Amino acid sequence: MTTYNWDEKHIIRFPEKNVALETKDLHVYYGQNESIKGIDMQFEKNKITALIGPSGSGKSTYLRSLNRMNDTIDIARVTGEILYEGVDVNRPDINVYEMRKHIGMVFQRPNPFAKSIYRNITFAHERAGVKDKKVLDEIVETSLKQAALWDQVKDDLHKSAFTLSGGQQQRLCIARAISVKPDILLMDEPASALDPIATMQLEETMLELKKNYTIIIVTHNMQQAARASDYTAFFYLGDLIEYDETIKIFQNAQLQSTSDYVSGRFG
After folding, report:
1. pLDDT reported for residue 92
2. Is residue 220 included in any domain, yes or no?
3. Model confidence over 17-71: pLDDT tens digits?
4. In this model, does residue 13 exceed pLDDT 70?
5. Domain assignment of residue 104, given as a range
6. By C-alpha distance, which of 183, 46, 168, 44 is closest to 104?
7. Residue from 77, 89, 52, 55 nearest 184 by CA
8. Residue 179 included in any domain
9. Exposure winner among 7, 138, 207, 236, fewest CB in 10 A?
10. Is the predicted pLDDT of residue 256 greater than 90, yes or no?
11. What pTM does this model have?
12. Is 246 within a domain?
């Protein structure tokens, strides 16, 4: 049985000008249990970063912390800094609703609203006071085009979102998230409920989106991480073990534990 030195780490840093988001000494506690153990990490702008690791490694918990989704869990406590545009968005005085316009999220399973395709996109804008139909039409078209869904639904915009396939629903959720023009898009295993064809379409959409967005994705699929990401971070037991360019993680990892995980020898 292989014994790993989990105190050994290999973590890249980026020049300050290229950093879209950064965490410093980030801890997450669920009651007395420390789920995330003081992670320092930077994400490069307009790149896709994959977070990988076995179940229970903390990758989804870490991801949800980046736009304060853990606030909805009563026993969760998050300490440390989450720096976006030089502002610590983990401060208690931060307007979380406004912050999430800049750091959006797409969840594991498609969660369209029980509304039309059109109103899934416009709902937040209408609530914010946008009434001009021409403006709303433009938001819908632009968002659906960026999510690679426009050509498939442009003649059915007023049909229920539930008439779409699972893959289409997930891309609708992406369109809804990017309609408010966030800088960063968080994705928590967005392909886990999708078939292989829909997964490939989603990955193609992500590669197109990174022209305008920084994407951070949790995935349990090693092939997906290898295909779709620029950088990969390996999590284990709530800690960040290795973080580097994806090609290095999969072909020339610095640590044996990382090499064993991505090759399927443990985890």
Report:
1. 93
2. yes
3. 799 999 999 999 999 999 999 999 999 999 999 999 999 999 999 999 999 998 8
4. yes
5. 10-109+185-263
6. 183
7. 89
8. no
9. 7
10. yes
11. 0.93
12. yes
- Domain harbouring 49, CATH code: 3.40.50.300
Average pLDDT score over residue span 178-182: 92
If you average pLDDT over residues 158-165, what whole number do you get? Answer: 96
1: pLDDT strictly greater than 70: no
Pair 234, 209: CB distance under 8 Å: no
Dihedral pair phi/psi, residue 24, rounded to 5°: -125, 120
**Per the structure, how many domains does the chain have?**
1
Domain assignment present for 67: yes
